[in-house]
Design brief:
This protein has 6 helices and no strands. By secondary structure, it is mainly α.
């Protein structure tokens, strides 16, 4: 029995894109709602990056905080995506984790 062939062009035209989803749920690019969503998404992303790397290095939040001269609660807020991370603090954290920042 022969499998039916998929019409990929038709599927591409009919399926909504991720941008369609974001536009519908968070507003168009440039709208205040979309900007707020993007800000929260980046905070979450960087928080997860820091948390996973910290765990890979077998560091507690307190140990990481001590390395950069901050409170443990600050690290917790970053990892939960609940604070706006300044670039200077981000650089301190990634250096403490043995990572480097490359700007391209």
């Amino acid at each position: 029995m022969e499998r039916p062939k998929l019409n990929l062009e038709k599927i591409k035209r009919e399926l909504p894109t991720m941008n369609d989803y974001l536009d519908e749920n968070y507003g168009k690019v440039g709208s205040p709602e979309r900007e707020e969503f993007s800000k929260k998404a980046l905070s979450f992303y960087y928080g997860e990056l820091i948390k996973e790397t910290r765990k890979e290095k077998h560091l507690t939040q307190q140990e990481l905080a001590d390395k950069i001269g901050k409170e443990r609660a600050y690290i917790a807020k970053i990892e939960q995506g609940k604070t706006d991370l300044q670039i200077s603090n981000f650089v301190q954290i990634i250096n403490a984790l043995g990572l480097s920042l490359q700007v391209i």
